[in-house]
Amino acid sequence: MGRKKARTDAERGAHGVSDGEFPLLASLGLYASNTTGDGNCLFRALSDQLYGDESHFREIRSGSVGYIKAHPDRFAAFVGEFGESFDTYTKRLMQDAVYGGHLEVVAAAEHYAADIAIYQADQMYIVQPIEAVANKTLHIAYHTWEHYSSVRNKSGPHSGPPQVSAKSGPVPIAKEEVPRWKLEIVMRSCPEAEEQTIISKLKTKDYGQVIEELLTEPDRQSDHQPITEPTIEAGPTVKEERTAEAGRPKKRQSVREKRGQARKKALERKLNKNKRRSEPAVSDQASEPAVNLPDKTIYI
């Protein structure tokens, strides 16, 4: 966070960063306040929005990460990119000074039943809870140097509850048709899916539903494919094989091949001998006529 500390008060403005970094905020009569950059910035920014100061950041971290831990069915699929197990991830995020990102923003929106408006230089997007019903809106800014700040009114208050009230006017809502973070999560989970297909689905469905649908799509497609019977080609008959072999020049056998054939013939003789011994003698006075078996045995 050296870049932030190196800025002068004039560059940052009286209460926050310069208007040049966030022209959208400036046009709405808002600014990104100075928020401590110690790895807890996301939770400090949310604490300022909820309580009017940064001091509750540990509580915010615990609540957000606790929500993720309690809902592995919703979040576990997105943790794999970090190369660690879900349990290891949640334990690490519970620790002080570990940077929080989009997953924690989503979890905070659910845990605190809030819409979270995230402002960037010239656009903003809103993370909305799916399971909870939002009863408030929290405003935070995301810097290009991976830092979150709480958003406040230029006219104040500059301490205590922010009471954010943006000036009326058009607000550019994310250049993308859907929030970029949702698109990136789905693309990482389903790398073979086409981007336009994902965007189309995200317009009407939650990203978790889209991922599940894309992962099961190949199975559904295969169910509708016509089933064709395998073609079995008839092989040559024994007579044809023997005739073909008779017309081929004899290949010179190696010592190993000769030994192998000798062992095979010895085994066949032994099997035939044992078979004859085990067959019961047929009585001349048998009530049923004897069945003439073919005297030719084919070994496969």
Automatic annotation (TrEMBL):
GO terms for biological process: protein deubiquitination. GO terms for molecular function: cysteine-type deubiquitinase activity. It comes from the Eukaryota. Gene3D superfamilies: 3.90.70.80. Residues 30-154 form the OTU domain. Pfam families: OTU. Signal peptide: none annotated. SUPFAM superfamilies: Cysteine proteinases. Residues 215-300 are annotated as: Disordered. Residues 261-276 have a biased composition (Basic residues). Residues 238-260 have a biased composition (Basic and acidic residues). CDD domains: OTU_OTUD3-like. This is OTU domain-containing protein 3. It comes from Wickerhamiella sorbophila.
